[in-house]
Amino acid sequence: MSTQEAVIETAEIPSFLDMCPETLMPTPADMKNMLKQLAAMPAKIMAMLEVEAETMAQNEIDGLMSEVEQLREVVEQLLDVIDAPNWGSIDWADCRAEIGCDKIFQKYPTYLITEIIKIITKILDIKVEIPIPPLPISIDILKFVGDKEYKAELIATLSGNGEDIKALLSELDPTALGLEAYEAKINEIKNNPDLSAEEIAAQIALLNPEEMATEAYMDKVNELKGAIIDPLYELLPPEWRSFGGEEGLEISELKAEAVIAFIESKMSGLGVGILMDAFSSLISIFDKIWKLLGLPDLPVPLSLDIGAMIGEIVEAELAKFTIVLEELDALELKGELTGEALMNAKTEAFDEMGKLMAEGLEGLEIAGFSVMDMIGGPIDDPVECFALKKKRICEEIGRFKDNYMLFLLRKWMEVVTKFLKAIGLGKLVELIGLDFCTFLGIIGFPKAIDLSFTDKIKEVPSTMASALPSGFELTAEETAAKNAADALPIFTAVANQTTFSGTGDEGDALSYTVGAPTVFKTGVSLEDYVIDETDGDKLLLEDGEDIVYEVSSQYTATNGSSIVLTDAAEEGDIIFIVPQAA
Fold this sequence. Notes:
Number of helices: 20
Shape: elongated
Number of domains: 4
Strand order of the largest sheet: 7-15-9-10
Low-confidence stretches: 1-6, 528-552
């Protein structure tokens, strides 16, 4: 008789439809819960089989093993899409799933940033190789996002898996290392004055040379990789360090992942800074048209010291924990608390510290949104791990700061859409509303998976409702500026066209007060004695001293409904007309 139904509870995961929210500020809770539950299920089934296999029929065992293999295949396909790490030395499937989710949610804003930068570099010379302080490295942001080989090589190098480390590992001789460790241990035992001859012989007999060879080899591997990882990890801000023993857990692979996560976060934040500088330069180049349209200033960056916010909470709880430890040590000295009772008291104090730290971190707010707003709801962890929870919260706060700033910048781009089109950057408009659902499609994340082969996983609609904005809500001032700019007529010229009247490309009628209008050709005012030309999709600004015209010879505007250029436009020229005077 089978017992697996009673042992393995069906895991309910958010529907795949919920993985694809049409939102500009997505939250990771649903995707993390879905992937973590999927990733953990094979291990749950295998654990049950280890206990119950003797009471089960062979066909039941074979069926469950088939489910395990199919689940693993599904999980690996999904984790591959989201660039989840694949560690050879540790098996922590749901942690891999969570880190993969973090990567994809970090990649979404970085992807948008780099796509915008690619377009703006057609006009401005933008430095795309940027330093990542405090780490001693610089990274090409466009290659990091768009060149898989570049990114893979960089990550391998920073994780202690570069070609130089591989070369050193290939030279290691596990047998020789094991023999060295075996002989050293024998000498240690023999030189112990507290052991009798019989005890020495007994301890030597217990030694396993093969196991010692494996341990010695892995110690050397960790030493070589640690020489790369540890110095970088130690440079990370405290809030980014969770798996170096700070919370009682040290895992070299996760220290490497912390370094990579920090770099990915910094790329996003620094990328937003690059965009702010780039748009500021654009505004200065097209200052006259900007003022005529009455367009808004760039959004003000959030001024937050996230490290200080997190550090204050962590240090406060750590100080309380230190006091408790001192009190427990005092009880030990008095003989009032010893042995297992003392150990349990210290463990309880440590767990309480972690609980209070997590509560304090979850209570932080940025721009009126809580940490749980940023995450999207609770994450179902198969095993409670404060180090993982702290990592999750700290990274999400940092990511939200950058995402929110990018959201405000995209909202600003929504207001100045007409301006962007007028200066030849119309392609940017396509990126303003690129939501997370569209992005998942771009990277190849499936909209559905077939789980009909198992009854251990059930898809259910998500009950989580995001508190984050799903679209742009413009203020009255922003709406007025956008409406005024959007109503302005833009004409795309045909060859040798001189007269422009009626409605523009988007149905906006040309109407002006005689003597008032200002005419721009592909974004540069004809009154400023400078004309720009379009070469393919690259906008080139020519030197104003090379092409000089008298203002009166450029165009006439005498009837309130048409504009006549003195020199005929070329096919594809954009004529942009602002009715009011400067």
